[in-house]
Amino acid sequence: MAQIELQARAKINLTLDVNERLKNGYHGVEMIMQQIDLSDEVRITAHQKRGPVRVDSNTDIVPRGEENIAYRAAQLIRDMYGIDRQVTIEIKKNIPLAAGLGGGSADAAVVVTGLNSVWDLNLGLAEMMELGSGLGADVPFCIMGGTALARGIGDILTPIHCALPLDLLLVKPDFSVSTAWAYQNLDIEAVNKRPDNPGMVEALRQGYKKGIADRMVNVLEGVTALRHPEIIGIKGLMMDNGALGAVMSGSGPTVVGLYEDKNKAQAAADFFKTRYKEVITTKTVTLKEGE
To answer: Each residue of 229-245: pLDDT tens digit?
Structure first.
């Protein structure tokens, strides 16, 4: 029996643009994705005996079977390599569910990297990312980590060097949003404000916080906020409480605020905790150049 414990880190979208609706049902996007220091704790046990994939969690909300992307990740690797040994995946959820933070994708990503390690599959990073792309559009990024410009359906990734960690506040209101619903209800032709992705890349490279804050734009925000105007309210309250900038992550509903330092982020968190259950201070995870 072999066992490994890994941190499955969440992601946020600093920007999100949608360029086209593809015939296969996906959308062409250009967005800047950022890994953050908020993670699920995942323990993977590879048994010697034959048996199925089993998923357990500290919350009943997490699916135990094929509807769980981490389950599908383990099964995919088993099928690819003809492995019939039992795998147990224990997930301690810290990332809010259905929140635009990629929690499920992060869990699947560490299942891929974890089983690659414990089963000595010797897959390189590019191979694991290719495998992950068959599970979900965010999985390759969650395997790679750091900061990246994502194109295509989110699977064509260009790493970005970010000069410094950024202090963030996450506020998730008490409702969930379907990613498929948000994309289906986006009128691409009606979008009147799109992200300046080249400018954002340069601001990240320079560590220019105001430049980063000014370019935090997500075209799906208008779709989700039309049904849930509370998102605009949270953004406004963040700005009133010291944020340099704020944006909805993914299809929402989590709103991300960028702050000058962790003390200002914590002060804003104290304010929001009187109004919302899921309020988290965190920071970005940066990779060293060349990693």
So the answer is: 999 999 999 999 999 99
